[in-house]
Structure formats: C-alpha cells, structure tokens
C-alpha cells in the first residue's frame, strides 16, 4: 500500500510538471525544434518584450527551453499553443530588451574601454536572461566585471577571458531577434 501511494504520487508529480510547462511530445525532431523556436521567438519578443529573455534548444533531449522573467500571461500564451515539442519554462533575471540595451551600450563603448585597458573581444546576451557576457583578452575578470558593472548595472555584466568567438560545428544556442533567421 505504501509503495503504491509513492508510485501514484510520483506519477502525479511528473504529469503535473509536464502540464505546467506546456509540454506535448519529448524527443521532437531537430526540424520541429528549430521551427518552434523560430515561431516562439517571434511571438514572445513581439508580445512579451517586458518578460521574454531567450530560447535555448536542447536537441539531445528534444526540448525547447524558454527563459522569461516570470509572467503568467506569457506562460499561458505558450500553453495555449499546440506545439509538437516539449517546452520547458525557466526563470530569467533580465528580459531580452534590457540585456540587448546593455549589449548595445557596451558595444558602443568599446573604444572607451580599450583606452582604459579593457580589451573587449566579444559581447552578447546570454540566452538564459542572466545578463550580458563580455569576453576580454587581458586583465582580471573580477576587476573588469566590477568596473563594467559600475557603469552598466550590478549583476548584469559577466566577464570571461577569451579571444574571438569560435562557434561549435553543431547548432549553437539560439537567441534570434524577431525577423532574423
């Protein structure tokens, strides 16, 4: 009796999790994932710009991960769509609009930072809405992150050391501006 209750509780929890994230079929094809991500990106960036942060494809597990600042209307819009892929909703710290704004500010200030000894190689939004990733080629990551955060806001800038961006041969994380493929 005790084992049956645990099994029933486990099944109920799994079903509730699937329903709450708007899922339908785990393991969708790569073509389905890309089509859904493209469609969702356009819809969410247009209609939910204050909360939408980005999309990530989990091709290995056949899932589309949608990052958003918690927003019931956005969640309901995703659930209302009858997609053929498993959709996972995850919380984000910043919406894509804020992350793009800071990305553009940093990009415009690259010469300013170079004059101050911070050589920025790559700057761009993180798909998970956690902020802007800035790749520098010299100096202390912590010092640079503190300096950049003072100018652009606390907790939105994440500095890493590296050179030019080299994308893997597999499809990278997808964060598409509306209308761009």
Question: What secondary-structure arrangement, pairings included, does this model have?
Answer:
Blueprint: H1 2-20, H2 30-47, E1 52-58, E2 63-68, H3 72-80, E3 86-91, H4 96-108, H5 110-115, E4 120-125, E5 132-136, H6 141-152, E6 157-161
Parallel strand pairs: 2-3, 5-6
Antiparallel strand pairs: 1-2, 4-5
Brief descriptors of the model:
181 residues, alpha/beta, Alpha-Beta Plaits, 2 domains, 3-stranded mixed β-sheet, 6 strands, elongated, disordered N terminus
- Count the beta strands: 6
H/E topology pattern: HHEEHEHHEEHE
Number of domains: 2
Structural class by sheet pairing and helices: alpha/beta
Strand fraction equals 15-25%
Helix content: 40-55%
- Poorly predicted parts: 1-26, 166-181
Q: How would you name the oligomeric state of the polypeptide chains in this document?
A: single chain
* Helix count from the secondary structure assignment: 6
Report on this structure:
The structure is a single chain. The protein has 181 residues and is of the alpha/beta class. It folds into two domains: 2-91, no CATH class; 96-161, Alpha-Beta Plaits, CATH 3.30.70. It has helices at residues 2-20, 30-47, 72-80, 96-108, 110-115, 141-152; strands at residues 52-58, 63-68, 86-91, 120-125, 132-136, 157-161. Strands 1-2-3 form a three-stranded mixed β-sheet. The protein has a three-stranded mixed β-sheet with strand order 4-5-6. The longest helix has 19 residues, at 2-20. The protein is elongated. Residues 1-26 and 166-181 have low confidence and may be disordered.
């Amino acid at each position: 009796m005790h084992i049956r209750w645990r099994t029933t509780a486990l099944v109920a929890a799994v079903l509730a999790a699937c329903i709450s994230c708007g899922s339908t079929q785990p393991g969708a094809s790569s073509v389905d994932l890309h089509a859904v991500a493209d469609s969702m990106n356009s819809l969410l960036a247009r209609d939910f710009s204050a909360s939408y942060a980005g999309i990530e494809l989990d091709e290995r597990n056949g899932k589309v991960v949608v990052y958003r600042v918690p927003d019931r209307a956005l969640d309901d819009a995703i659930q209302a769509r009858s997609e053929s892929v498993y959709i996972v909703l995850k919380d984000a710290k910043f919406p894509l609009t804020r992350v793009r704004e800071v990305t553009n500010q940093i990009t415009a200030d690259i010469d300013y930072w170079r004059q101050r000894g911070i050589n920025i190689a790559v700057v761009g939004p993180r798909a998970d809405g956690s902020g802007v990733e800035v790749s520098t080629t010299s100096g202390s990551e912590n010092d640079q992150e503190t300096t950049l955060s003072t100018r652009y806001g606390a907790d939105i800038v994440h500095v890493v050391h590296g050179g030019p961006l080299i994308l893997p041969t597999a499809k990278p994380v997808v964060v598409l501006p509306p209308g761009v493929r």
